[in-house]
Write a structure and sequence with these properties.
By secondary structure, this protein is an alpha/beta fold. It has 6 helices and 5 strands; from the N terminus they run H-E-H-E-H-E-H-E-H-E-H. The chain has helices spanning 3-10, 21-33, 48-59, 73-82, 94-103, 114-122; strands at 14-16, 38-42, 64-68, 87-89, 107-109. The longest helix is centred in the N-terminal third of the chain and has 13 residues, at 21-33.
Length: 128
């Protein structure tokens, strides 16, 4: 099963904005204990790439781990290098979308207006 199918199957994707890396890891542990199998670690979490890497190491294929609030091309590289399985950006940016698309993993672009929704689709977003 691919990442997009897994996201659809899990229905619930928990988005964590933790104050510390430790809080993020313990929060995910509680979510996993409660049956959640898809999480998004936002870049508002300190050391987000390290948290993502730790979760990937800990849970392997049992938990789908993504990076959220991705706002720069550098964050795309960091998240992918950490093992993120999908990426989420809060807005529609051509430069960022191109970098996300070139990563080879599924990505979602945030959009508010119909024009942004259309642009996100044209930029290759897997989800809007």
């Amino acid at each position: 099963m691919n990442v997009l199918e897994s996201l659809r199957e899990h229905v619930v994707v928990a988005v964590l904005r933790a104050p510390t890396p430790e809080a993020a890891v313990s929060g995910v542990a509680a979510l996993v204990d409660g049956g959640v199998r898809a999480v998004e670690i936002t870049y508002s979490t300190p050391q987000a790439p390290a948290v993502i890497a730790q979760l990937i190491e800990r849970y392997g294929d049992d938990v789908l781990v993504g990076a959220g609030t991705v706002t720069t091309p550098e964050q795309v590289t960091e998240a992918v290098d950490a093992g993120a399985q999908y990426l989420v950006s809060p807005g529609t940016s051509v430069v960022l979308a191109e970098k996300m698309r070139s990563s080879g993993i599924p990505f979602a672009i945030g959009a508010l207006t119909p024009s942004e929704v259309m642009a996100a689709g044209e930029l290759g977003a897997d989800l809007v």
